[in-house]
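PROTEIN DESIGN WORKSHEET
SECTION A - STRUCTURE
LENGTH: 305
TOKENS:
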């Protein structure tokens, strides 16, 4: 296997993730990481704007509630063609082709208009990185695929910028190719197409990903949310005061075995809604937990938490 810098004979530090060009890399584009990285600019800001306007548009269709709006909301989610250009993820784990994209989009739409709709209505679920916490079947691979397609425009412009500053991408027999790709337009809030001139590696167009945008695990995963914030909330729900006024809490490992608190998105959704009814936003607490560890550069501890 050959890395990007090896393939193009680039020496010195580079501003992109140095993945293998001839294989899938077990890294996943993480929308929370992109939001928190805040660089390189203007690409990070553009990518976050794409993510936010996309989900705002989809959830806006739910708020509208008219048949045309509902059809549009589902259709917007069915446009995630397979994102092989970044070499991220696992090809066998994502969706494949137009049919797979439609199935994934419909699954997300059915969750947003079904069990998860109460969270949409009260604006708890309002960012792209919230989806894997509540939607069955959406984990790091699907999240990465969806995020890549929504952020494709900023990623491609970043790639063009790097290519313009590193002549190695077009030297020594290496070629660039002008391609036309689907992009999300945050101004019109519609899918469209745009042309980009991108490098070709191992016979396929290559899309570069800025350093820090992809990770081996998601900062915001259902498992992490459950293990930290949801179980902590459940501990307080079941806590009792001893005779001497000490708060007694059940261990998390024991909480996991109690009926209604088993690991899974049903438990996560139910706890998030119960907390909201008591004026407590568990998702906001979880994001504060994740963000604090990220800004401390405590990534290894954050992933393990």
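SECTION B - SEQUENCE
RESIDUE ASSIGNMENT:
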């Amino acid at each position: 296997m050959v890395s990007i810098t090896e393939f193009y004979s680039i020496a010195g530090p580079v501003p992109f993730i140095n993945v293998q060009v001839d294989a899938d890399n077990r890294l996943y584009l993480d929308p929370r990481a992109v939001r928190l990285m805040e660089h390189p600019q203007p690409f990070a800001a553009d990518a976050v704007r794409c993510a936010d306007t996309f989900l705002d548009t989809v959830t806006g269709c739910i708020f509208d509630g008219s048949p045309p709006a509902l059809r549009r909301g589902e259709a917007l989610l069915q446009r995630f063609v397979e994102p092989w250009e970044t070499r991220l993820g696992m090809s066998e784990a994502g969706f494949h082709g137009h049919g797979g994209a439609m199935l994934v989009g419909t699954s997300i739409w059915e969750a947003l208009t079904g069990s998860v709709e109460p969270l949409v209505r009260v604006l708890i679920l309002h960012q792209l990185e919230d989806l894997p916490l509540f939607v069955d079947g959406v984990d790091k691979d699907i999240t990465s695929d969806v995020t890549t397609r929504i952020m494709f425009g900023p990623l491609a412009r970043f790639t063009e910028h790097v290519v313009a500053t590193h002549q190695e991408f077009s030297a020594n027999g290496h070629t660039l190719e002008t391609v036309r790709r689907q992009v999300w337009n945050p101004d019109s809030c519609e899918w469209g197409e745009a042309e980009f001139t991108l490098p070709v590696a191992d016979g396929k167009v290559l899309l570069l990903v800025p350093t820090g945008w992809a990770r081996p695990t998601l900062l915001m995963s259902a498992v992490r949310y459950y293990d930290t914030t949801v179980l902590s909330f459940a501990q307080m729900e079941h806590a009792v005061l001893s005779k001497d006024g000490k708060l007694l809490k059940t261990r998390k490992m024991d909480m996991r075995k109690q009926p209604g608190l088993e690991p899974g998105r049903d438990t996560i959704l139910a706890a998030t809604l119960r907390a909201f009814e008591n004026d407590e936003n568990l998702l906001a607490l979880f994001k504060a937990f994740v963000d604090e560890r990220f800004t401390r550069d405590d990534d290894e501890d954050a992933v393990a938490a």
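SECTION C - NOTES
The longest strand covers residues 190-201.
Strands lie at 28-29, 176-185, 190-201, 204-205, 214-215, 240-241, 247-248.
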